[in-house]
């Protein structure tokens, strides 16, 4: 198997015939056919179905295509990461995948402020639980920051084991309610789930039907009105302009997309766990350690210990 052969298979997926794929690759049709045949013989699988209408991928072929894309993507990242001509190795490099909750962005901003005057390469990608896990498992991100409810913890740990990931718990926190500063509940010292029934609940849309990868911090909460969104900015925009509410892990920090929004402790026996994941066997870079220190600091500042 060669990288070139994998690139051939990926190009084939964009066409319905070997001849058109070969033309796109600027190689002969027999050369492309031979490359596919060699892969099929090496792995003892059938990658393509061939008929008078063209070619299509078999079930085994689709699995092979998925691995081929992953390998080529990782190869590209490897080349970029170690490109000395770009001077990347001489500056801090940090890639984080994080759950949508506000604490990850808050600590990232605090970490960023310590790097003023220095060259650096930083990336934070907020996403759903499954996407955070995937990015770290496939080494697209060095670490992943997650928020888990008691309902999802056992399932997530099983996924961590399957994907060869280590999880480190940072803090147990109590949920908070996010509402606009003029909301009828805004002056409350705390609220209960019963207080929320008649108000619209804004929450992250599920990525699939798996309840154990749900983005809902309290999956059993009931509301007469429900709004699903896919990003935090939309969530905050809705909250600022309506009587809708959202749930979060901690009290809102000042100055991070939070003007006009306040946080209120939620009176509930449920707690949430904040932690981070990384791929086993991969050393943690100093930049990651520095970011995690800020993450712990921001979590400690957000509310008293719940441990």
TrEMBL record:
SUPFAM superfamilies on file? Periplasmic binding protein-like II, Winged helix' DNA-binding domain
InterPro entries recorded for this chain?
Answer: LysR_HTH_N, WH-like_DNA-bd_sf, WH_DNA-bd_sf
Q: Could you tell me which residue ranges the HTH lysR-type domain spans?
A: 1-58
Q: CDD domains, from UniProt? A: PBP2_LTTR_substrate
Keyword field: DNA-binding, Transcription, Transcription regulation
Superkingdom of source: Bacteria
- Any one Pfam family match given in the protein's UniProt record, by short name: HTH_1
Q: Keyword RNA-binding on this protein?
A: no
Gene Ontology cellular-component terms for this entry are: protein-DNA complex
A Gene Ontology molecular-function term?
DNA-binding transcription factor activity
Which family does the record assign? Belongs to the LysR transcriptional regulatory family.
This protein is called what? LysR family transcriptional regulator
Q: Which organism is it from?
A: Megasphaera stantonii
């Amino acid at each position: 198997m060669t990288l070139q052969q994998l690139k051939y298979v990926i190009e084939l997926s964009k066409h319905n015939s070997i001849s058109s794929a070969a033309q796109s690759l600027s190689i002969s049709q027999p050369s492309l056919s031979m490359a596919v045949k060699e892969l099929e013989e090496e792995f003892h699988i059938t990658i393509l179905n061939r008929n008078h209408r063209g070619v299509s991928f078999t079930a085994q072929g689709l699995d092979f295509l998925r691995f081929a894309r992953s390998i080529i993507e990782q190869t590209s990242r490897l080349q970029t990461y170690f490109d000395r001509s770009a001077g990347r190795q001489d500056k801090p490099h940090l890639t984080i995948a994080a759950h949508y909750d506000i604490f990850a962005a808050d600590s990232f901003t605090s970490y960023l402020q310590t790097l003023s005057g220095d060259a650096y390469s930083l990336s934070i990608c907020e996403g759903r639980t499954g996407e955070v896990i995937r990015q770290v498992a496939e080494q697209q991100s060095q670490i992943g920051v997650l928020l888990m409810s008691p309902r999802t913890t056992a399932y997530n740990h099983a996924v961590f084991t399957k994907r060869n990931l280590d999880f480190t718990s940072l803090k147990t926190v109590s949920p908070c309610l996010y509402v606009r500063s003029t909301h009828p509940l805004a002056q409350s010292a705390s609220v209960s789930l019963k207080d929320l029934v008649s108000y619209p609940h804004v929450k992250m849309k599920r990525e699939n039907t798996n309840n154990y990868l749900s983005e809902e911090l309290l999956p059993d909460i009931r509301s007469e009105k429900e709004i699903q969104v896919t990003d935090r900015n939309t969530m905050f925009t809705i909250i600022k302009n309506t009587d809708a509410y959202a749930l979060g892990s901690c009290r809102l920090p000042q100055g991070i997309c939070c003007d006009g929004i306040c946080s209120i402790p939620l009176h509930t026996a449920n707690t949430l766990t904040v932690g981070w994941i990384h791929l086993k066997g991969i050393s943690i870079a100093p930049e990651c350690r520095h970011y995690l220190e800020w993450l712990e600091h921001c979590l400690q500042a957000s509310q008293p210990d719940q441990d």
